[in-house]
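re: ur question from yesterday

yeah so i grabbed the chain u mentioned. its 201 aa long if i counted rite. heres the sequnce exactly as i have it in my notes:
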Amino acid sequence: MKNPVVLLASLFILASCQPIMLKLYGIKDPDIENRKTILKKALKYDMDTSNIATVSSNEYLYVLNKRGIPDGAIYDRNGQYIEYRQADTSCNAGLFQFIPNLNLSNKYNQPDSSDLLTTLKKYRDLTGNNLASPDPADFHLLIYWSVWTGKLNKNHVKIWEDLARANKNCKINVIKVNLDIQEYWHEADQAQIIKALSKKK
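ran it thru and got these structure tokens back, copy pasting raw so excuse formatting
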């Protein structure tokens, strides 16, 4: 893909809380990915290859504009969103402390926003099928990542998932949401999204 929109790189930079040299971290133009290439990249970075979701083509641009890369979202056992950031301008670094401290006795900031089931309707499995209902858990952690944004976002994915697994105070279900352009999308949808991402300002 030629001339990727600056928005894509900006999402990564803002989500990481500091200007990062894109070349150093392997940022490249987005490619069209599929189940094989996504799992291969996940294995390369020693990520757990279970519970990887993708985004449907009709929701892709909306989700990409709403989420940073890497980023996370937390929901309670009832599927209600928990805001872990202290302010709208806070970055995702708070997850490193927030995940290990999750427990059922704490009270959390829960703004009247999205719920888990509504959110999951935007996502698909690696072959484009609707996601099954999530396993019962005390909390649900959605981690957003991609192949094309280099190594840092995948390192964060592994760390955050390991922190969730190590938390003995509660059961945390992790879903890793891949934000790449998917091969299973219709070609017309692929072309439309590639065009939208490649427009010059």
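noticed a couple things. The longest strand covers residues 139-145. also Strands lie at 32-33, 52-55, 71-76, 81-82, 123-124, 139-145, 172-178, 181-182.
anyway ttyl
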